[in-house]
Amino acid sequence: MLGVSVSTVGRALADRPEISDAMKARVRSLAEQHGYVAHSAARSMRTGHSTLIGLIVPDVRNDFYGAAAMALAKCCEDAGYQMVLAATRDDPDSELKQVRSLVEARAAGMVIALSPSPRRETLALVRRLRSTELIRDVAGGDTPWFGIDDHRGIETATLHLLDGGHRRIGYVGGQEALSTGRDRHAGFAAAFARRGLDLPADLVRTGPPDARFAEKAMAELWSSAHRPTAVVAAGAGLTVGVLEAIGRLGIDVPAELSAVGFGDAPWFRWWGPGLTTMALPVYELAYACGGHLLRQIERPAPAADEKPPRYRAMHSPTLIVRGSTANV
Amino acid sequence: MLGVSVSTVGRALADRPEISDAMKARVRSLAEQHGYVAHSAARSMRTGHSTLIGLIVPDVRNDFYGAAAMALAKCCEDAGYQMVLAATRDDPDSELKQVRSLVEARAAGMVIALSPSPRRETLALVRRLRSTELIRDVAGGDTPWFGIDDHRGIETATLHLLDGGHRRIGYVGGQEALSTGRDRHAGFAAAFARRGLDLPADLVRTGPPDARFAEKAMAELWSSAHRPTAVVAAGAGLTVGVLEAIGRLGIDVPAELSAVGFGDAPWFRWWGPGLTTMALPVYELAYACGGHLLRQIERPAPAADEKPPRYRAMHSPTLIVRGSTANV
DNA sequence: TTGAAAGCGCTACCAA
DNA sequence: TTGGTAGCGCTTTCAA
Q1: Is B43 part of any domain?
Q2: Are B25 and B60 in the same domain?
Q3: Domain containing B294: what range?
Q4: Which residue, counting CA atoms, is nearest to the C1' of nucleotide D7?
Q5: What is d(CA B83, CA B81) in angstroms, rounded to the nearest whole number?
Q6: Which residues does chain B have within 8 Å of residue A86's beta carbon, measured at their own beta carbons?
Q7: In angstroms, rounded to a whole number, what is the distance separating the alpha carbons of residues A282 and A288?
Q8: From the CA of A23, how many Å to the C1' of D3?
Q9: pLDDT tens digits, residue range B207-223?
Q10: Which among A93, A211, B58, B114 has most CB atoms closer than 10 A?
């Protein structure tokens, strides 16, 4: 302390109006000179709120979550928060650990895409923070949810194929334990129902929503006696796997097989004849999600008696027709 | 406090040997029942070290940094740290802000891919934490560096084209302000020198290492009077842009143009005829980087007099030949 | 084996 | 406009 009191220094650095400009200047120059950097842990201990926001997703290499991470990172940065990123690889124990750490850090909030079967404790901890669910809708309770219209998305994709004359349509989707898996599967069925057609149940494959599973599933579909003439990939990671299988097996798209993907990674446009796909406004979705969370954080906690209904924001996917689908 | 003292509770939860098992059990069950969760800010304030590790990169959607994020996330999780992710979009002010936040949080360490022209203060702050540079080599000083052999990588790629008979080879790379830009450009020149050939200087384009620039640059190269017969993309983001231009312009690869990419995103294999590329062990690199950082963190600070030489780990890229390159 | 108390760096309250 | 001081929740030293 070279001159004045602790409180004066604190106020000067916080740029409070009651401090004279001369004093502010003196304090600041000295602080800079000595390389003083505030201690955020001490501050958050005193004020009671931290500046951390968590993002918990299965995998950032998935274009979906990569885009979400960029969007939330931007939100956090602009609002002066730091983003803690955790990749669970859909491992419920990893997930629990990460969520617990976030609660221990008294994070200001978190955005989470929950794993298919989260631990009971995980859900309890998620509810303890101001949380928002992204894409997957599992927590229940009153956690706000930001996702896409999975049902309509896959229904649209499937109708596109049905209306192109396809009947033997394969489906590669996430497991039923996921809300996304259920809704997308239902959308697939709904498309057949709407056209009064029977669903080819033998061509439906569901499992972990990653490329590895999808590749295996697609290969299986292709090796079956009665091959599909088209396939719907019902997830970003799954789309990658389906395309890998198509490449590896040397399937001629769209002559032998029409394919519709999910999401719109930049390279889909340049894949083979161009991939027909359901584009999702992921960046916008995650940005909206971050905005909502920040507003919750900066608003005082609502009174216990006025309980607003659960917030749900459903963004719509758009069909983008490229060269990978042809009429039959 | 329902029974005993603060210290006893603290020790019980820390599983200290001096506490009786009976007491531990009592404390734990009560803690669980009441949903007690430790306060990491208070702990780190007391102990003087936090459990945060920062990762600062330009963009996580870039396959390169996406893979690095996954690797570091795994390292952090296994060692009980939390990863703070910041995406600077190569904006030096954003970068400074994020680095400062990390220092304010007294982060245990950070891994950073610095922007082309970082603020002076940024570098000072980076040196203040246990930091490691990833890929880009700009901080100087004694910050350890983990990167790839950029020179040799691009030299290999270029030799592959030269030996296939190409002479008019275009080069789309990052600006010279980046270590990676310099080294890769040098590698390009070195390949020509090694074969005793003149470098086609009119086909060299350098700029920001993103898809937007690369697309523009590639389009320019293609519209020139004397077109290249091959092109080298010297960066992950740049590769995406070059491929976009190729798609948009409808260039026939490899008949009209041979192309070599940088990095090996999963979809490169299935792009057009398969993209010939320099594969980089990014995951391994980032994992090694994280391991090194953690070892530094857990080791006591070295004495000022025994100053080890700057740690540099250079991983080698590998040429993967696919269908996008043909002899001329 | 347990308890009392100091102190990490900050902010906010009360006093001057 | 400035100073003194309590206290956030934890760990750790010293004492019992």
Answers
A1: no
A2: no
A3: 49-148+282-315
A4: A46
A5: 7
A6: 73, 77, 82-83
A7: 10
A8: 14
A9: 999 999 999 999 999 99
A10: B114
